[in-house]
Amino acid sequence: MTKARKVPATYARFESPPLEPADELHLIQTALQSLTELVRSSRLEGGPILWSLDSDADWPPPHVSITLCGVMDLQGTLAEAASLFDLDSTDAVRQYRSRFSKDIADYASLYTLAPRTPEHPRNYIGVKWLALNMPSPIVKDRDYCLLECQDDFTFNGVRGWARSFNSIELPSCPLFPGLVRATLFRAGYVFIESTMPGLMKCVHVIQTDLAGALPTWLVRTAMKRRVRNIVEIDTLLRQLRLSFSASLTDDQLVPLSMRRSCFLCSTKFSPLVAKQQCGKCGQVVCKHCSKLWELRGTCVRVCHKCAAGAGIDLPPVPMPTVDNEAPFQIYTCDDAKQRHRRPLPRAFSTQVHDAASRPLPERQLSWPDDRPAPDPFQHRDIPVGRGSMQVLAWVALLAIGADAAKRAPSNPIWKEVLALPDITSIETTLTTDGTYLEVRYDGAKETLKTISRVTSLCLTGVSLPDGLKKFSLSRVNLKTIPKGFTWPASLTHLDLSSNKLTSYPATTPLPDGLGFFSLSNNKIKSLNDYFTWPSNLTELNLASNQFSTVVKLPSTLTKLDLSGNPLKTIQAQQQWPESLTELALTNTQLSVLPANLPSNLNIIHLASNKIAKFPSKDDLPDSIHYIGLTHNKIATLPSKIEWPNLFTLELDSNAITFIPDDFSLPTSMGILALDANKLAKLPASCDWMAKLSSITLRDNAISAFPPTCTLPNAISLQNNNITALEDMALPQQMDVSNNPISKINRVTFPEGVFWTTSKFELKEFSLSSAMFDLLSAATDHTYFYPQFTTDDASVKTACGYGTVKKLHDFPISICVV
Q: Can you give the residue ranges of the START domain (predicted)?
């Protein structure tokens, strides 16, 4: 066992005594099992988690967990992906934090259980501690004690690499004052090679319980923003590849005078649309069709076409832009009742080893014969117990492919299923080997039986057993509900999503105790006038069908999803359930908000519509605390936002050109998102920002701040035109990447400051003695790693009566006055 070098920590310094060999072996086995479960969970179809494309609905309650994943196709290789997570040094962790996880407040490596070796450079197992900054200053930071595993794997002949985390409990990592210990049930990254050389799929899974009584919308906002760091991986891989391709010299570029319109979008150049030259192909493009890339220490403008191909002979993958977000998708978990791994006990014993390594009953599988299960990971020689091999069988099941198919049960599927005693749950899942059916039976024991190679399923002649609580028959080309079919009275969860249903028969009533019902992703245009709803239904998902009008709704609903239907308009006399607290109308072609919304509505999702006018005070109830209006056509904001309980307002990707001079927000506001609009400046009086905990202004054209502007605790300003930060109070957390900043003078900031920057060069940089001391402390033994530099001669010339001082070993000179 090799003990890792401790990283200086803000919250605590750790003493990590050596582990007993048996404890160390047990942690290694647990890490391998966790990585296996992560790979299995990352399957969008066929894993233990039933994923659906996120429409901001059906979120598990915060006391259970938040479960979601981000998916993106990337250019690159497994070796390149693994190199991004080689974090065996403090400098590597600093770089990682600045690129991917800006919310990491502190970090320590407690144990290295299986270090990288020349034979296995991509394999690693260790124990780490980290603390996370929460997005709101009124919420305590969270920390985790984590078991990490990095390893290669293979299933169905396809190679992959994964990095997994799960929470454990160790005596050497106690609870700390001021922090709330959160739990990661499963989390990590899974990279899988594509059939097309040079491409791979990345899946980022997070299943966590942040603990404490946090508002659901705050947890959702924080976790969705965190899972989006998968986009940063794509950006870095493109950056690495662009660095290895040749850039053109100035005389090789197409002269600006020869082009009157953008080479890519054909927009005509004007005083408001400047000409830019791509450093890779030389063509003249506009700012919106290009981006500044940091390549080997030099900023080079590259058009989106060259960036999509990464400058090499590989199949191009579209750049994630405002107008094209398809390459990146977030999926959420449909089932809130997930089964999680318990954290390891604080103390180990032989009895604990045996119990912990024994797989849970629902994870046992019956193999086709008595041969031992193959190990899909082909890990280096680390002992793995019998229990571990049984859990690994979940992924190994994928590896045996066609052989397992030949030995699949030959009896009719429903006959085999319904012969099982005390069935509580029947669910379909999809894998690359076909459709699987998972049945839990034996009552409270919930023994699991898996049937593979199910080519199709229907309900003709099927009589479901009493006692069945959950029935999910998704993605099996189900076309009809047969005449005379009945549902068990015990059913509480019914999911018929992603099939080919064109109607639901009124003659097949839903059980009165049903609480969740989903018909999403079918082809239903309407429901029969005689259709009746259960009296206890609280969650209804009708997303992605062909409804042109809103159906008559049950009065008991609390959550309703109508996203992806061509509603276009909603009648003024529409009656909404008074108990409704969450309504999703994303991508429904609406141009105005619906009327008569219920007085208890908390959350409304209206993204990707055609709404051009910002809602008035009377359009939404006072109870509203989340409004999602991204990707609409809103051009102006009112002077006053008046909803008294509003916390989050998302207005990304609209057409907002200015913020009114007398703009004001309610005291409840915490998060305001204005990314990718057309803002060129901020109002002269921006004291309203001080009420916020976070504001995002990425991808605008802001060039300066008013001299009296009071900023929130966190602000994101990437990709703007800011040239100077002078005579103002800066926030604790600030991202000013990709701005042409040349001056920072006479600014103040709080203790613990953390800025994210790119490699710009300052001509002037002056601070007071007190601010210099704060900045020096913030960059010493933390992960605040300034990327910018200074022109020492220019700083000295502008210094006047001050004293020029160096900031540690960074290439930064500061005039201290």
A: 136-225
